[in-house]
């Protein structure tokens, strides 16, 4: 048979060059294969008849069998309409037409059996169906109708008469061309063991299912296939990398770690911290290179986990480095870690862009000779001038500011790549992490240190400023500090800056007795850091800022986070911002300020924020509200993410299942040469060719 993937869509009967160009532009459909994989988004059951007395206003579409009792014209001018009173013996519905009245009265007769199809609405206690489809009852064989597919189309397509029905017709034409089964993509044993229908059957039934059971089986097979190849791709890639890269073996837990644990550790580790440290230890001891994502909500104590992992590396004779996205964060880590290691024989240094001259040379020398055990810094750590004697482990904090390319540079610092631990406070639901970061292992800290008071979040409309300012004043009088954050949207940076400036002016006027500082993205880094520092040291009480403060700044004394235009932030961003407070022992507050008019989605976001402090719950909600494509961090993950039929949230269980199967396949056929897998590997190669360059992912 001809190859569907290479046969141009324009040669399909009913298409031609003009429609072909619309299909390509609007839906990306270029070949017959593309059309075949353009699945309906819903189906309407036309095999079932309803009774009038069963109808309520929530039904999507229904089909009735009965007779028109009488016609009636109502209204004047543009309100004119034709109503047919239609009965099936259990009740009466009104069929309504706003146009084409003449045609209707000419075509349909009273007291004649018809089948009526349409969407019911209930209005003033009466059921209406506007512009229904009507067929003579004896002409329609319901058992042959099955489920009717509905396809998404764009406005432009509809204007070119390419509506759902037209697509359906095209797919019918395509079906008629396919005279023999399509090549299978999965090996027989997987098909049998998982009770899958054949690919051909699935593709036919996904478009034209005869009944819900056929549809379910078709969907299952296609979801299975989709998730399976995504996982196979990732696991295969991991295998290739493992074969390429050995890892350092950290077999010992020694003096440094133990001294710290028994003498310096200022508090009990949480259960989650203990578990995660164990996971990391095991991973670094097994002989392959660790590439692990450490997720934990803001304030969950990731720094400590990072530090203790680094101590293991040091115990095994290696150096470590830790990178943060900003200077201020790097110096905070430096201070924290130096303080925690007080009295121990571990040399920690800070390297940022602003450390220059003799000091810099000293540090670089120490790194080169191996005397520096822990190097903390910004991107500066990645510069070519920084050479380590034995870099064994790298920690990357707040990963979404660190591109994939930067991670890759780290690897070039050694012939054997260091173990890598990426820390992020933007929690990603486990199922999504598995799909996106399948090449990274994931550890999760799902527990906060004891004694934290949950942040209280409130929603306030922006006309209640007086009481908002009074609340802020009260907090400052009690010695606390306050953040006020304005949104920043790239397209209108000027306007946002004006927003921020206006806000700054107002705050200065409202609080003349306090010191206010200001930080935004257009400032020079040095200037920005200086302003931040004034807030960190407590010199200023109020910080007016854009989202630049989102990442990791730790000011335990700050207890109020005011977010202006909160409707313009995404959920995970709101959560990140909120995480800047609640770091001390005092009760903290997050105040979300918006106008009165809110969209449904915004209202949901605000409600979730008010209801929960749990980052994972928020991430799940975010995923449901926005869909995975938009989630922060997924862009940078570098994994092509284009699921047609499976849904990460709904099909989480299937995802786990296929991942196991894919794992077995990769284990049993590590070189990808088993003949009974040939079709499958061919499909994978085809997939890789059409997606991104996998070798770029670190
Ligand atoms: P994040 O995960 O956001 O990076 P940090 O590592 O900055 O969180 O930790 C937040 C605060 O919690 C720090 O002040 C840290 O000292 C403290 N902390 C960490 N672990 C514990 C623990 N097990 N018990 C009590 N406090 C802890
Ligand atoms: Mg942190």
Describe the structure.
The chain has 25 helices and 22 strands. Residues 629-641 and 692-698 have low confidence and may be disordered. The protein folds into 4 domains: 47-150, OB fold (Dihydrolipoamide Acetyltransferase, E2P) (Beta Barrel), CATH 2.40.50; 221-245 and 656-696, no CATH class; 255-445, 3-Layer(aba) Sandwich (Rossmann fold); 456-612, P-loop containing nucleotide triphosphate hydrolases (Rossmann fold), CATH 3.40.50.300. Helix 9 (212-244) packs across helix 24 and helix 10 runs antiparallel to helix 12. With 698 residues, it is α/β, with parallel strands linked by helices. The relative contact order is 0.09. The site of adenosine-5'-diphosphate (ADP) has 16 residues, from helix 12. Magnesium ion is lined by residues 302-303, 397, 552.
Tally of separate helices: 25
Unreliable residue runs: 629-641, 692-698
Secondary structure tally: strands = 22
Give the biggest beta sheet: 7 strands, mixed
So, CATH architecture of the largest domain? 3-Layer(aba) Sandwich
- What number is the mean pLDDT? 86
Query: Structural class of the helix and strand makeup?
Result: alpha/beta
- Estimate nothing, just give the exact number of structural domains: 4
Structure ligands: adenosine-5'-diphosphate, magnesium ion
Report how far apart the termini are: 40 Å
How would you write the strand order of the largest sheet?
6-7-4-3-2-5-8
The CATH superfamily of the largest domain is identified as P-loop containing nucleotide triphosphate hydrolases
The CATH topology of the largest domain turns out to be Rossmann fold
Radius of gyration: 32 Å
Q: Helix share of residues?
A: 40-55%
Oligomer: single chain
